[in-house]
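@channel sequence for tomorrow's demo:
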Amino acid sequence: MVQTIASKLLSPRSLKLSKFRFPESACAPIGANQIDDFWSGVATQSFREIKEGGVPAEGTEFRIAVGSDKMLYLAILCRDSDMENLNIMSTLDGDAAIWSGDFIEVQIETPDHLYYQICVGPAGNIMDIDRSEGLNDEWKSGVEVAVNRGKDEWTVEMRIPPAGATASEIDPNTGISGDLPTVNDPWYINVGRVRLRDGNAETSAWSPTGGTFHKPVPGAQKAFGRIFIEK
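structure tokens (generated this afternoon):
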């Protein structure tokens, strides 16, 4: 059954990035309807349940594009019918307690680095991890984040700056090592969400793994989706 899931549901996804011109306020907190309006030229990608690839009870959508400033932008909309009980376990950057509540996670593999983990909580706090050799929480991504909490959703906007192909050689603890993704040198990413209520976690992702965020089932080793810019 595991192999069937891996081969039928967990094949890597591929996405050509939109080129988009954002105003300087691109990373300002905005609500769900404004995200729809603001990002209207960028295709919406839906999350699936991480193990079986089914439809999550609480849906999540994201959009990703490259701006005229040569940065990557993500907009993530987390629908939630129980916003009153949103689990905010920490408001501090670099606090591992973020994993005990609700959070969004972005994983990034570039041609120059395998791989980075960036987590964002509903309070806008960030946890950066370089997973190339264990768990290095001294690494800082340089990502800018804006979070907004609405009536029945919370949203995350991220500006991700590629630091260049030699970044890890210059300073291994600063920046995402890699140039902008291209057809010949794509990035591989996954975007996931954990929603925790009453001790039960609903875990979903753009590219399901059949296992957990960091332990895909056999046959789905390349569980990250492929992203690139076509020049």
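heads up for whoever presents: The domain at 2-228 is CATH 2.60.40.1190 (Immunoglobulin-like).
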